[in-house]
Amino acid sequence: MKRFSLSLLAASVALSLAAHSASAQSLSELYESARSFDATFLSAKAQFDANVALADQAKANILPTIGFSSTISRSDFEPQAIGSTAPAAERFFGTRSYGVTATQPLYRPGNLATYNQGQKQLLIADAALQAAEQDLMIRLSQAYFDVLASKDSLTLVRAQKAAVAEQLASAKRNFEVGTSTITDTNEAQARFDLSRAQEIAAENDLRVKQLALNTLVGKPEVQPYGLRIGASLPLLKDGDMDQWVDLSQQAHPSVRSAQMALDVAVLENDKSRAGHKPTVDGFISATNTTNMSGTTLAQTDSRSVLSQAGVTLTIPLFAGFATQNRLKQTLALEEKARIDLENAKRTVAQSTRTAYFGVVSGLSSVSAYEAAEKSSQSALDSNKLGYQVGVRINIDVLNAQSQLYQTKKDLAAARYNVLLGQLKLRQANGSLKEADLSTINTLLAK
Fold it and tell me: CATH for 2-36+108-277+316-441?
């Protein structure tokens, strides 16, 4: 019994030392590393920057435009008098001109709608970036807890292997003195061999999970902090599922994006209707022209400056029914955007409820596994005592050991699933923030 307890203590110390190594990092620290390395997030960030620039382009439709033009020409003038036999007096002259023209839209409802659409597109881009940030938090948390769960599994497999080895040695001793049969030895040997196979599988699983975390954050041999012993898992308030759902209807990136898409579709209708409306533009220009060696009317150099200012009114009369048909199209697309918004709200609400029930169920599972761990420990102690006095056989002890270690493994996994589930709940209703990772950090053994 003492050797069994010492084996568990040694395994716990080894796990603690690994968790507190110098290279260990918290969830928040690894998130900062992932933000600057993860290709999926960096791609979303670049797309956001592109969308910001695209939205700013829409401002050009309501701002003035200024252009500069310059012309240089050379003319060959040969006058011909009708009925005259005199030779033509051919001469050459050149013209050089340059000018500046500025135009300002005064009344263009279509341009104004395009500008407003650009502002809505900027909000859509922001929602997409927020969704990418939340996705990165979840992927990092999943990889982080996968490593911790895999480490726990390996530690427990090794502890079980040590306990089975002790049971195997005891069975061999009892067989040698004639107090047990060879069956006990064979059963213990079979369970020991199985533990070795499980240890190999657990080691490989840890390597794979560690590689996934390293790849995500761009650092080699990352050692995440383990869950603090005795840490209390955050609880959900009773009856607040509706509050989570209500928040999702305004905060979730997909709902916000769908709402902005509807606004863009409404503005597209305004642009279509603007096809029936007149447009008014103001303009001002100045042109400097220099005539070298005269003109067709004069033979001396001259110079002139022409300045103009005015307003241009354009009234559409008929466009082959293109405007009417485009309006029909945009009205149908507006209805589609309205339906998409409703579908996004329903989907988010369903996902939030599912995630909420998952956390509630996970918390209940943790409580049940904690009770099962105590019961399994008591069952193992009873079977060991019964084996020593001869009322239990070796296979009973081995089964009790397997049950205890499986329960410990399931309990550890359940704890990680609850923490990850709470982050997924916040992602489901759109409220997941970097501060939520800091809350998880308070539960880690630093």
Answer: 1.20.1600.10
